[in-house]
Every structure is written in structure tokens, then in C-alpha cells.
Amino acid sequence: MSFADQLERLQQFLDADDLHDEALDYLAGHGYLTALCISPVEVPEEEWIAELFAEEPNYQDEAQKADIEGSLRELKAEIARDLSSDEELEPPCDLTLGDEPDLSDLRSWCVGFLEGVFLREEDWFSQDEETVSELLLPIMVGSGLFDDQPEFAEIAQDEDMVEDMMQHIPEILTQLFLLFHAPEDKPKPALLSRH
Questions:
Q1: What mean pLDDT, rounded, does the chain reach?
Q2: What would you report as the CA-atom Rg of the chain, rounded to the nearest whole angstrom?
Q3: The pLDDT value given to residue 194
Q4: CA triple 131-133-139, angle to 5 deg
Q5: How far is residue 139's CA from residue 174's CA, in Å, rounded to a whole number?
Q6: Could you give the 3-state DSSP secondary structure of residue 93?
Q7: Which of 59, 64, 61, 75 lies closest to 26, judged by CA?
Q8: In the chain, which ranges are continuous DSSP H helix?
Q9: Please, what are the domains in the chain?
């Protein structure tokens, strides 16, 4: 089976209605796996798979379980390859929240990414909290999870600024990856300038 076919099967499985309410759908799952690939520490496979589904799905049989978990591993490996190449990693959706942010694909992706960060939150922020916080800001804004906080509510009012932030997400992913995984003798990535 081609990787594209595998991904299609995975997407149908993750987007089905019979998974646990807190399970991640395909786009959130992609964001989640992206965060795991960037993470400064490795998260054990059984832990991240369990967290992704919130509870064990009702697989038809062991073969389906092996197929879905294998596809998740493949997708994670593919994302890791993209991050370590010279190409910017694009989320598999438009980089816009559109007119209804709560229904946007990018919001799902951002929520999933932060779920991946939360698995090892202390490790993400232990080296350089200020830089990591600044780089994560657009993804935090995109997720909508912090809209009840005054500074985020204020940013959300400025649609142009929010849209501009969303366009920078691929660049941010590269910068976060380099921050955690570039050899020590390489210069740290410069922060995005604030517009």
C-alpha cells in the first residue's frame, strides 16, 4: 500500500465519529505528531499513542490496530524527515483561521500541536523559556485555547495580525526544531520580527 493510501485510511479512522470525544482527529493528530518530532525529549511510543486516542479505540481486529499504529509511526517519521530537511514543513491545511476560527482546520492542527507540547511542557520551556514562548505564540493564538486571557483576547481582535501570525507557522516550526536539535556550535535562529 502506498503512503498516500495509508494516510487516507488513517485520516478516515481518526475522523470517524466512534472515537473517544477527546481523541485527536487527523489534523489535530498531525499537529500533535509535529510537536512530538520537535520536542526536546523523546516521548515513549505507547504513551503518545495512548494520549492521542484518549482511550483504546474499538479496533476491528489486531491487524487494524497494527495498520493504524503503523501509519501513525510512518506519518511521524515523515514529519521528522521534513523538519530535518531544508524545506519548511507545511501543516496539511490552509494557513488561515478564516471567518469561523472555531471550525477551521488550522485551529484543529494548532490544538493538536499544543497537546504534543503539554506532554513534556517542562522540557519545552526549561532551556529558553522566553524564546520558546515567543515562537509558540502564533500556534497558541491559532489554537484558541487561551482566548479567555486578556493578552490573547486583544490579539484575537486584530484579524490582520492573527492572519499574519498564521502565515509564519511553517517558519516557526523550523525555528523550534533548530532551537532544540541544532548542534551547539550553530548559531541559534533569529526570532521572527514582530510586525
A1: 93
A2: 17
A3: 47
A4: 120
A5: 13
A6: coil
A7: 75
A8: 3-15, 26-38, 45-53, 62-84, 105-118, 121-126, 129-143, 150-157, 159-167, 169-181
A9: 3-181 (1.20.120.740)
- How far apart are alpha carbons 114 and 39 in whole angstroms? 11
Distance CA 180, CA 38 (A): 7
Which has more confidence, 100 or 188?
Answer: 100
* Predicted pLDDT of residue 27: 97
pLDDT digits (tens, 9 = 90+) for 138-165: 999 999 999 999 999 999 999 999 999 9
Q: Compute the distance between CA of residue 37 and CA of residue 76 in angstroms, rounded to an integer.
A: 7
CA-based end-to-end distance of the chain: 45
Distances (CA, A) of 74 to 44, 104, 156: 15, 25, 35
Q: Which of 154, 126, 125 shows the shortest CA–CA distance to 141?
A: 154
Give the amino acid at 120: R
Helix or strand run (H / E) with residue 148: none
Name the grid cell of 78: 515523515
Cα atoms in the Cβ-side hemisphere of radius 13 Å centred on 83: 27
